[in-house]
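Bumping my old thread because nobody answered last time. Still need a sequence for this structure:
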C-alpha cells in the first residue's frame, strides 16, 4: 500500500506546519475533555457544595489506576504501531491496534466489577469520611460503569489519530464535551440532581463520544483493521513495556494525590481538600494541553524513528519544547495575576475558608507550572525513541519518588500547608534529570547506533 500524503508530510514535510497540523487537533480534543471535567467541577462547586467538590477529588487516585493502564496501552501501542506504519507494515500495526483495544476493554470490565463489589472499602481507603461516603456513593457507582467506555474510547482515539483521522477524533471529543456541559446544566441546575446528575451527564456524553469514534470502522481510507484473533498476545507485554513510563507517570500522580488528600484531611480538613481541588483542576488543565502537544510529538517522532531521520526528530522536539515553554509562562501569568477569579469559578462565595486556603496554595505551587510541561515533553520523547526505562525514570521522579518523598519529609519539618512546596521542587529536580537523559539519548546518537546495527 503506497504511503499517503500525510505520511509523506510526517517524513518529509515542513517541520512547524506539520507539527501544528498534528498538535492543534490533539490539543483541541484534550481541551474538550478538560473543559467537560472543569465544568463538572464548576457546577459541583457552585451548585452542589464545596464538600461535593472535595468528595469527587477523593476519587481521582482510584480512577487514575485504570487510566494509567489505558494510557500505557494507548501510547505504547501507538508508538509501536507508528513504527510499523513508518515501515509501511500495515498488518502488524493492525494487530497491535486490536490487541490494545481488546485488552483495555477487558481491564475496564474488571475495574467496574471490583468497584461495585468493594465500593465502601475503596472509598474508605481513599480517605473518605462517613459523610463524604454517603454523598459520593451514587456518583461513584455510575462513574465506575462509565469507566469501561472512557478507557476504551481513549485507546481508540489514540489509534484513530495515528491513522491520520485527527478530525474524527477531535470531533468525537468536542461533541462529548459539549453534551456533558449541557447535561450538567440540565441535571445539576434545573433538575437539582446533585452529584448523581453529574455522573449521568458524563455517561450520556461518553456514549455519544464512543458512537462517533466507532464510525472510524466504516471509513474507506483507514489502514488499521480490528482483528478479533490478532495472533501472539505476548506483544501486549512489549507494548506495555514501551508505554511503561506513561503508566508510571499517571499512576504515580494518583498516588501522590492520594498522599496529598490524606495530608490535607489531617492538617486542613474538608475545607483544605476542597481548596486543593482547585489546584488539581489547574494542574489538570495544563497537563492536558501538554499531553496534546506530546501526542503529536510521539506520533511524529515514532514514524521518523522508524525511517531513521535524526534531524527531523530533533527539529520536532525543539519545536514542541518552545511551544510548551511559551504556554507554561502564559499559565503562570494568569495564576499570579488573576488567582481569585480562578478560585471563584470553582468555589461558592460562602466557602470563604476554602477560597482563602486555595489562594495560599497557589502562591506555594505556581513554580511547578513552568517546567511540568517540559518534563512531560521530554519523557514522551524518550518513549517515542523506544527508551522506556529512561522515560520511566523521568516519570517516576516527577510523579512519585520526589514528590512523595519530599511531601512526607516537609510535612514533618514545615508547619501546616508549607509542605506543598514539595510539588514544584520535585518538578524542577526532575527537569534537570530529564535534560541529562535526553542529552545522553539524543536523536543523532540513537539513530547512529540503529543504522550501525543493521
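Sorry it took so long. Here it is:
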Amino acid at each position: 500500500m503506497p504511503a499517503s500524503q500525510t505520511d509523506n508530510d510526517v517524513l518529509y514535510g515542513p517541520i512547524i506546519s506539520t507539527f501544528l497540523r498534528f498538535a492543534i487537533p490533539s490539543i483541541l480534543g484534550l481541551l474538550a475533555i478538560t473543559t467537560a471535567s472543569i465544568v463538572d467541577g464548576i457546577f459541583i462547586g457552585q451548585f452542589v457544595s464545596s464538600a461535593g467538590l472535595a468528595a469527587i477529588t477523593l476519587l481521582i487516585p482510584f480512577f487514575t489506576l485504570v487510566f494509567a493502564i489505558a494510557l500505557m496501552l494507548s501510547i505504547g501501542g501507538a508508538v509501536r504501531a507508528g513504527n510499523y506504519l513508518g515501515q509501511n507494515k500495515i498488518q502488524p500495526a493492525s494487530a497491535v491496534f486490536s490487541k490494545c483495544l481488546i485488552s483495555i476493554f477487558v481491564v475496564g470490565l474488571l475495574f467496574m466489577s471490583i468497584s461495585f463489589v468493594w465500593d465502601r472499602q475503596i472509598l474508605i481507603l481513599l480517605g473518605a469520611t462517613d459523610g463524604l461516603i454517603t454523598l459520593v456513593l451514587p456518583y461513584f457507582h455510575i462513574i465506575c460503569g462509565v469507566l469501561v467506555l472512557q478507557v476504551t474510547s481513549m485507546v481508540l482515539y489514540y489509534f484513530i489519530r495515528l491513522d491520520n483521522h485527527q478530525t474524527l477524533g477531535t470531533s468525537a471529543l468536542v461533541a462529548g464535551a459539549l453534551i456533558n456541559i449541557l447535561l450538567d446544566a440540565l441535571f445539576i441546575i434545573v433538575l437539582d440532581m446533585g452529584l448523581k446528575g453529574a455522573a449521568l451527564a458524563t455517561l450520556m456524553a461518553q456514549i455519544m463520544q464512543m458512537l462517533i469514534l466507532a464510525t472510524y470502522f466504516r471509513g474507506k481510507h483507514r489502514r488499521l483493521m480490528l482483528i478479533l484473533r490478532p495472533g501472539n498476545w505476548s506483544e501486549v507485554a512489549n507494548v506495555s513495556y514501551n508505554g511503561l513510563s506513561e503508566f508510571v507517570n499517571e499512576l504515580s500522580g494518583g498516588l501522590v494525590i492520594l498522599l496529598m488528600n490524606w495530608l490535607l484531611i489531617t492538617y486542613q480538613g474538608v475545607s483544605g481538600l476542597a481548596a486543593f481541588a482547585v489546584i488539581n483542576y489547574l494542574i489538570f488543565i495544563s497537563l492536558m494541553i501538554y499531553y496534546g502537544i506530546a501526542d503529536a510529538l510521539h506520533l511524529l517522532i515514532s514514524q521518523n524513528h522508524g525511517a531513521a531521520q535524526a534531524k527531523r526528530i530533533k527539529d520536532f522536539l525543539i519545536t514542541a519544547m518552545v511551544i510548551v515553554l511559551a504556554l507554561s509562562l502564559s499559565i503562570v501569568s494568569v495564576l499570579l495575576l488573576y488567582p481569585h477569579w480562578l478560585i471563584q469559578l470553582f468555589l461558592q462565595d460562602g466557602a470563604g475558608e476554602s477560597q482563602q486556603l486555595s489562594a495560599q496554595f497557589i502562591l506555594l505551587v505556581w513554580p511547578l507550572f513552568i517546567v511540568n510541561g517540559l518534563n512531560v515533553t521530554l519523557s514522551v520523547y524518550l518513549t517515542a525513541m523506544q527508551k522506556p526505562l529512561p522515560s520511566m525514570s523521568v516519570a517516576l521522579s516527577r510523579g512519585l519518588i520526589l514528590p512523595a518523598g519530599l511531601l512526607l519529609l516537609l510535612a514533618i519539618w514545615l508547619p501546616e500547608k508549607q509542605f506543598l512546596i514539595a510539588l514544584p521542587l520535585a518538578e524542577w529536580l526532575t527537569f534537570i534529570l530529564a535534560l541529562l537523559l535526553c542529552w545522553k539519548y539524543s536523536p543523532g546518537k540513537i539513530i547512529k547506533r540503529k543504522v550501525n546495527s543493521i
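The mean pLDDT is 82. Let me know if any region looks off to you.
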